[in-house]
Amino acid sequence: RSLVERLLARGMRSVDVAKCLGLSLSLVSRYARRERGLQDFMVYPDVAKYIEKLADRVFQGEVCGISLYKEILMLTLYILGRKYACSLHYAIDRDINPASCRLCPDLVSSLMSGLLSWFIICFIRSNKHGCN
Q: Global pTM?
């Protein structure tokens, strides 16, 4: 939601926001009216700074579609790893203790270790930064 709001505030048309993000026009409108989006991660200065920079890049036409999806995925992993989504998780499942829960940081750490191993193997096999 935050990215949609920033793009619209920069003057990007709703239809272009929808196309770039792969969202329906209806969902873009609901984000703009704050009818969707459970948590505003803009309260975290590091996330807010990243989203502002990302919005600038999208608005300038530097990133869109699959490359934007990758950026959003990396931001999501960052948010989970920093435990910024714990209150959202707690609202869904009151049995967890956000102060001691390590589910998301451990998951992100495991995923990143796996990705790093994959990139190293690919680099060694192909002497490039990706698998052929």
A: 0.77
Angle at 66 between CA 110 and CA 20, to 5 degrees: 130
Residue 63 corresponds to which tokens in the numbers above?
A: 């990133």
Cβ burial, residue 94 (10 Å; 0-12/13-18/19+): exposed
DSSP notation for 29-78? HHHHTTSS-S--GGGSHHHHHHHHHHHHHHHTTS--THHHHHHHHHHHHH
Q: What is the DSSP letter of 82?
A: T
What number of H helices and E strands is found in the chain? 7, 0
pLDDT by residue, tens only, the chain of 132 residues: 999 999 999 999 999 999 999 999 999 999 999 888 767 888 999 999 999 999 999 999 999 999 999 999 889 989 999 999 888 888 888 998 888 988 888 888 888 777 767 767 776 676 555 455
